[in-house]
Amino acid sequence: MNAEVKRILIVDDSPKDVELVIAALGEKNLANKVDVAEDGVEALDYLYRRGDFAERDKGNPAVILLDIKMPRMNGIEVLKHIRSDPKFMLIPVIMVTSSREERDLVESYKLGANSYVVKPVDIVQFIDAIKILGQYWAVINQQPTVVLK
Fold first, then answer.
1. DSSP H or E run through 91
2. Where residue 98 sits, what CATH number does that domain have?
3. Which of 11, 104, 107, 139 shows a CA-CA span of 20 to 30 A to 77?
4. What is the pTM of this model?
5. How far is the C-alpha of 135 from the C-alpha of 96, rounded, in Å?
6. Structural domain range at position 128
């Protein structure tokens, strides 16, 4: 088992939602470092280590918490890129979004999302949901380190 503490990548254009996610993860005492991309373009820059993220540490995040409705490139497009690249296809991607649209839910799962969580309107429910997600996907879940062909 790899003892390295992996990062959590949050991709969300709402600073308030990002702040709540980070606070919820902190309440669960997760040691994971949290990185933030404000939209889909930044998320891909992060994964490919280019632009503002060119100097970030090597390696993939343990999990990506991905919003759908964002400027420049939405979460569905980001998910397509992630699942089409062998370097990223095994990263767990959790859609954490305010979208209750059936087409977003179906498209996310068709493209390989690991989970789809609708942001609860109630702040306590939202924080509880993030605590559970963070603990499961960043701590408990075991991921392969190589892609088998």
1. none
2. 3.40.50.2300
3. 139
4. 0.86
5. 15
6. 8-140
